[in-house]
Predict the 3D structure of the following.
Amino acid sequence: MAKELTSKSENYSQWYNDLVAKADLAENSAVRGCMVIKPYGYAIWEKMQAELDRMFKETGHVNAYFPLFIPKSFFSKEADHVEGFAKECAVVTHYRLKNDPNGDGVVVDEDAKLEEELIVRPTSETIIWNTYKNWIQSYRDLPIMCNQWANVVRWEMRTRMFLRTAEFLWQEGHTAHATKQEALVETEKMINVYGDFAENFMAVPVIKGAKSENERFAGALETYTIEALMQDGKALQSGTSHFLGQNFAKAFDVQFANKEGKLDYVWATSWGVSTRLMGALIMAHSDDKGLVLPPKLAPIQVVIVPIYRKDEQLAQITEKVDVIIAKLKALGISVKYDDDDNRKPGWKFAEYELKGVPVRLGIGPRDIENGTVEVARRDTLTKSVESLENIDQYIANLLEEIQANIFNKAKDFRSEMTTSVDTYDEFKEVIKNKGGFVLAHWDGTVETEIRIKDETKATIRCIPFDVEEEEGTCIVTGKPSNKRALFALAY
Amino acid sequence: MAKELTSKSENYSQWYNDLVAKADLAENSAVRGCMVIKPYGYAIWEKMQAELDRMFKETGHVNAYFPLFIPKSFFSKEADHVEGFAKECAVVTHYRLKNDPNGDGVVVDEDAKLEEELIVRPTSETIIWNTYKNWIQSYRDLPIMCNQWANVVRWEMRTRMFLRTAEFLWQEGHTAHATKQEALVETEKMINVYGDFAENFMAVPVIKGAKSENERFAGALETYTIEALMQDGKALQSGTSHFLGQNFAKAFDVQFANKEGKLDYVWATSWGVSTRLMGALIMAHSDDKGLVLPPKLAPIQVVIVPIYRKDEQLAQITEKVDVIIAKLKALGISVKYDDDDNRKPGWKFAEYELKGVPVRLGIGPRDIENGTVEVARRDTLTKSVESLENIDQYIANLLEEIQANIFNKAKDFRSEMTTSVDTYDEFKEVIKNKGGFVLAHWDGTVETEIRIKDETKATIRCIPFDVEEEEGTCIVTGKPSNKRALFALAY
């Protein structure tokens, strides 16, 4: 079969690439590092966007749109930011092409050189704070709670579909506040929104926590993260929320008159998730047969496949199916009836397993006689025969059960794959042979963090919010530590 | 008052600029020709997007995403296309910055020069057809019905907020078909979708028709358009749908095996509308007090302003208002209660008139006594006192009435401003003094079209689909013509 995937255990990386390609999620384009998101992949992203957008609006945010291009000089205004971002990016230097004098297509018109180069946004703090400057005079203008859905470009050398691409789609929230406290509350609120989304929609359990200083966003005073565990035991940073302090306000001179009439710099946050979430979704749940999608994000929740030999059988089946479809749609369940005559049922079964459709109904002449339907679950790959009576409610319940089961399975896996260690030897052993999350005491210094990374490739994913205070000693230096940090190999 | 607009009759162009700025729709950014779409403007665009997206999906389309960048060489592959598009565009030549050796910020790293320059997409036919090549082998792979919501860049020298900006947001549909007939049907279907959207949601009457050869999209065999009339008598092209024949399939060598097993080139269409629609929406309906939004696209359909002196009055009012809000929301009507204590009712009235909120309710102590509310319509600027009983149904009906009234007003204006002329003198006179649409016989040649444009600045907006066949003679050359073309000065 052309559609067969490399098995996950054999070659995880190849399995992922096969899956992305064969489930029609995305493919490489003619432009290095830039992907084409195919309709089925994009339909999943649209479901993600719709839920996130609703959650952002419910938490008081509005959408806006800021320019794709950023003047080069803007990047130099925030010292840490330029170190972290401005290097690997797409630079626009000219604004016109002309016919090649040699008659060979078009060439850059050297007369149309920009005075100042423009950078294709890798993130928009600089251009947005330059804009906010004009929006903010007094505390009455605050808070500003904007989000932007946009494409961004970071010239990555090694790219991987969804996980790391030169161009990717994301949302970036940028808020402006009158007080430090309010900005901190916002930073935390948004990491909670991301955590809620990951767990309740993507069915991906995440650990929320603070990044170590070394892993913070360029220009942030604090970066909160949600960290998910993939089935190969590697961590995937899935969303971040940054407390930016007054750094960008100072860099772009954004001051406001507070209630007492005194001028102060504005407090900032920014937060984002991207099409990288697609990578997390794929890698957290899928198997050797293909995608396993949580029902809440599946573009097709139920597929119905007729099984028949003669046209009159199909007519009988279709009559029943039309009733089922109407009932399911009334419950808000998305359903596809695949009566394509060119493909056999077996081919269709494999295809919808590959595509991760949560529930498949098979219905043949014997089902018509018996008033039944065969119900196949994508998550467990189990089948049962169910009565057509109340099938709509049965499926509605089943979809909820599948959503919960996928989440619980991922959570159980994470529990198994989370290890507390007390010595560096044990740490190295677990990282090397078992993988997963490792909780270990660390002395809080960048030096130790870097040494561990150099020696094991493991990085501090976060200092989890919910980790208990506990007296201990750093596994490397033996210095005192009162909390375990979360380490892992990571994407 | 700081928010007052230049009057429309005094200076239409300044009125438009004032309105865009003061209604918080958009503003210029630090990057030449690129605008910031502010939250209120973006909220209108989101309403437009949601309706259009629904209409596209109902007509069988799916969304996908293609790269922002296009290799320079792609533009040379379709001869007409390169002439029409590849010239004024943003060119990416480098992929890295480095610290300035002189310590002054960052500079382009000359070692990081791209082998082939990348163009920021001005439109995506080339990269998409290069992709479709891999998706299409047989007639079974057709049709492909993709749409993309994206940003595009055209390096315009003279920019105007929404109407013509260097970067703008749009959607571009790109479909691939097995037969010419099917592609033609699609081209027409989509111009009808645009016409339906313009008239039934934007309340902007449009004339549908075919572009003259000279005004066609670069690379198209046929371009259909919807043309709207603005209040200054100028036309605004508001959406186009192109029949591309086999031009792009040939340029990118996209062949398919038809049912008979023979290879043939694929037939194409493309179609798009952009944030330019925001310009049409603003200019078609608004007045000297600000925006006039059709209820179906208004982010806030109803605003409620309490009128009170004492806090206990506000409490009483709010109690009643809470009931009204609940009732309106139950009918799917969006409502805002503005009980901000810092602003006076008069200021709020002006503000929501500026923002084009279709219905404003004012409610004070006397209304509480009488069980009434004051209802103000934005479109007619009239007020009436209505009973609180059944106020929800009253408002639901009123919103429909306003939607219809705005459309009819624009349609009446267009009727007044559409003139049939039979001589070139008359044509020139009408274009110069009256403006609007002018229907005139034309001999069908590019020469005559260009002469008219050179002498009067009027262009052929389209040959309307519904214009009657009628024997006549070209107003310029006297040659025979069997249909009138639609001329106008245009944005």
